[in-house]
Specification:
Distance between the termini: 214 Å
CATH architecture of one domain: Sandwich
Strand order of the largest sheet: 8-7-2-1-11
Radius of gyration: 78 Å
CATH class of one domain: Mainly Beta
Shape: rod-shaped
Largest sheet: 5 strands, mixed
Helix content: 10-25%
Length: 206
């Protein structure tokens, strides 16, 4: 009897437990979406078969070109202003001096004197000049410079040369009173001046 009672109790308990579980099941199912943890993947399967990992290729950045250094322009030198040349003064024409001109300034037959003058514009060297008298008498000057406007006196007689006085050294008169002509020749023998003496007169320039 007791054994039957125990079986009945067990059955009743089972029925009650079954009913309770059926009642409780909908509640768990309804609330499962909020509380249910996602099922962990099969670790053994993941370890055994490696899965390919998709990798997105990162594009290699294009290197930025290094800018070429702009050359510093060479400064253009400031041109130095060319100075305006001063006008060249027109040279004053140097007057051409008159050529040396030898003249007989005085011819004195009484004193036997001949005076020569440089009537030109430049000095005249009398070296080699000769004074010819009639009858072949002649006196030749040694080096003597006659400046413009100056005179030299030649005596036909004897004496010592001094400054502008010269002596021909003749012992007798060589200038006759009656129309003797006195000639002066340059070193080449060319007659540069001639003067004629008149009787009893003194002849000067003219």
């Amino acid at each position: 009897m007791q054994r039957r009672l125990a079986v009945v109790v067990v059955l009743v308990a089972c029925v009650m437990l079954t009913g309770c579980s059926q009642l409780a099941a909908p509640v768990e199912e309804a609330s499962s979406p909020a509380t249910t943890e996602p099922t962990a993947p099969d670790t053994a399967s993941a370890v055994g078969t490696p899965q390919p990992i998709e990798t997105t290729a990162i594009p290699t950045p294009t290197p930025t070109p290094t800018p070429t250094a702009t050359p510093t322009p060479t400064p253009t030198p400031t041109p130095t202003p060319t100075p305006t040349p001063a006008p060249t003064p027109t040279p004053t024409a140097t007057p051409t001096p008159e050529p040396a001109e030898l003249t007989v300034a005085r011819l004195d037959a009484e004193d036997e004197v001949v005076v020569l003058r440089n009537a030109g514009g430049r000095p005249l060297d009398l070296d080699g000049y000769a004074v010819d008298f009639d009858d072949g008498q002649q006196y030749t000057f040694s080096r003597y410079v006659l400046d413009p406007g100056e005179t030299v006196t030649l005596y036909t007689g004897r004496g010592d040369d001094a400054g502008a006085e010269r002596y021909a050294g003749f012992f007798y008169p060589v200038i006759n009173d009656a129309g003797d002509t006195v000639l002066v020749e340059d070193p080449s023998g060319r007659i540069v001046v001639a003067r004629q003496a008149s009787a009893g007169t003194t002849t000067a320039d003219g």
